[in-house]
Specification:
20% of the residues lie in helices and 30% in strands. By secondary structure, the protein is an alpha+beta fold. The N terminus is likely disordered.
Amino acid sequence: MVTQRTFQFEEEGSIPISPHLLRIRPGKFREFSDLLEKYHYKHSKIGGSISHNLVLEFEGSVYGGAVLGPMRHQNSYEDDAIEIRRMVLHPDCPQNTASYFLAKIIWWLRKNTDVGMIYTFSDQTVGHVGTCYRAANFQYVRDTPPTKHVRWQDKLYHPRSLTVDRPYSYRLRKAVEEGDAEIINGKPKSLFAYEIKRNK
């Protein structure tokens, strides 16, 4: 079954000329999964539990999305912490949309949840240095040890993908064994944090 796209960009609909015209709302992962597949370096593969899918839209067209979930190593973080697992924007978005989207994510979490800390990682391996996070007043925390990825069919997978119990993982392990996929050493990731402060 082919999932119908919920947005149109070519010859139909309008393109926002300012990020402030974009609106955030809770949605479904499928509403922006094809944006992830096309424009995010990790594509649309995502593991682990998901708490919220937030959609960025303009006049009924989806221009971005964010996936939020619990911290993968929860014992190392605050009980009320959440991680921005993925964030993606369509290239037609106006300048500064990334920092605007982050500000709206903060606003939405403050209004609708009890989350107190937001974390996100910037992957230096693909040249991400956290510019939009700093612009949205996230604070740099630390760098992780150098990362490793599995490269297979022009896509990058976390090494954890080799151990999870999923159909693609079986194919990925076989590809590594047969030399069709390779494990590559990357650069560190930078961890950024934002504390949500509420009036008592």
